[in-house]
Amino acid sequence: AELRELLLSRITDIPDYPQPGVMFKDITPLLADPAAFGALTEAFAELCGRHRVDKIVGLEARGFILAAPVAVRAGVGFVPVRKAGKLPGTTLGQSYELEYGTAEIEIHSDALAPGDRVLVIDDVLATGGTADASLQLIRRAGAEVAGLAVLLELGFLAGRQRLEPGLKGAPLEGL
Ligand code: 5GP
Q1: 37-170: CATH number
Q2: Which of 4, 7, 57, 61 is the most buried (most CB within 10 A)?
Q3: What is the pLDDT of residue 100?
Q4: Is any ligand 1 atom within 6 A of the Cβ of residue 58?
């Protein structure tokens, strides 16, 4: 509860970003506070032991920032999931619906080993579209979803409900 208060106090609301009517949750103050960033890293790293995690997948772009120190702390590998066209090697791609149009994310096809237990990390869960696509990519790569960890869940967007089928019982850990 104390950790939650600390972290929430380091996330600020930016109105009308990136579009009018949207309230954007800005995590940069948290990143700039080593006590808060360190405590978050520690909490996410503990999940790796609890859920027997072999690899951490970070979602571009803020997911990278949170996931990389967790991977180092937990002693497991870090694997990036990127927007289409950014990874240099052979990739698997997954497209998903946005409010207007579609988006695509990719992973290196050889980044995960069959049976790897993967924890996905991102900063904010909004509609759940990005996270859901990443779960599909991980399974298509032959690995297992150990869980999804996010700093902040925007409850009113019902991402948790959208993700429930894709999680297949794996835990969604929020703040
Ligand atoms: P979703 O696919 O769940 O609708 O959107 C989640 C993605 O958009 C995440 O990768 C997250 O980084 C980004 N995102 C959406 N809304 C916000 C927000 O208010 N603050 C931040 N920091 N990221 C957001």
Answers
A1: 3.40.50.2020
A2: 57
A3: 87
A4: no
How far apart are the CA of 115 and the centre of ligand 1, in A?
Answer: 29
For the beta sheet containing 102-108, the strands, ordered from the edge strand earlier in sequence to the opposite edge, are: 91-97, 102-108, 77-83, 55-59, 117-125, 144-153, 172-173
Q: Any idea what DSSP says for residue 159?
A: H
Are 145 and 120 in contact, with CB atoms under 8 Å apart?
Answer: yes
pLDDT tens-digit readout, 65-105: 999 999 999 999 999 999 999 999 999 999 999 988 999 99
**ipTM value > 0.85:** yes
Ligand 1 neighbourhood includes 162 CB (under 6 angstroms): no
53 lines ligand 1 (CB under 6 A): no
Let me know if 4 is a catalytic residue: no
The predicted-structure confidence for 43-76, as pLDDT tens digits, reads as follows: 999 999 999 999 999 999 999 999 999 999 999 9
DSSP secondary structure string for all residues of 12-23: EEEET-SSTT-E
